[in-house]
Amino acid sequence: GSSTAKKKRFDDRLSAEIHRVSAVAVMKDLLLEILTDLKDVEFCKFKWFLQLTQFQQVLPQIPWSNLQFSNRTELVSMMWSSCGDRCLALTQEVLMDLDRSDLVDKLPLDASSSKGKLSLMDFWPELKQKVKQMESVIKMLLEEFDDLTLQDVKDIRNTLSWDLDDCPYLSIYWRLLAMNADLQETVLLLVQTFSQRPVDKMQELLSRMRRPDLEFALIKSTEKKSVVGKWKSAPIQKVRNNPDQRSKFII
């Protein structure tokens, strides 16, 4: 009856939202990988050219006070917050200014489009697969924590408040608080924010909350679904393998 139709519409809407968040997470991961390939001097120039390009195109500007001391992970978050999908096209222009056309080739942009729309589903099979993997991660988290109480969800949010010093720009804690977020909204925003390691971040939060029952259940579920275990970010792997680069990230 009508309740079945309502449930179907809800499922479709949630699936669309999971897909959108997954695409954003993969794009953020790709941007981080590109920024990781820049030398420190190039990274400083990238920030300067980024602000200049935002000004020229009358786009929302990231204040220099936020840009100046930001690391690569923080910069990706700031670019997404200020420019959304446009940050792909912005990155392309800045990389051209830096004479790094080799990195431009990594961006899944439609050459015929000047709007920089998300086009990975049409152009990059590898990224398409990563989006599907991220969708699996989100669905696994939602299924695993389906029985969490409202208090559990609030505890997760409150535990995130410990990260305030590490996230001075648009803290995820304040966003969740303002939204009075439920489980779905919390998981989706966590994945979108911590796109390189959403499962690790959730385990970390559960550990801080002293909830070994939930942490153990998540670990077991992760082991069962190998696709989740395969979600390893290229830039994060680089950092783990190269101690000299660890200072560039908050991991």
From TrEMBL:
<dbReference type="InterPro" id="IPR011029">
    <property type="entry name" value="DEATH-like_dom_sf"/>
</dbReference>
<dbReference type="InterPro" id="IPR004020">
    <property type="entry name" value="DAPIN"/>
</dbReference>
<dbReference type="Pfam" id="PF02758">
    <property type="entry name" value="PYRIN"/>
</dbReference>
<protein>
    <submittedName>
        <fullName>PPUP9740</fullName>
    </submittedName>
</protein>
<feature type="domain" description="Pyrin">
    <location>
        <begin position="27"/>
        <end position="109"/>
    </location>
</feature>
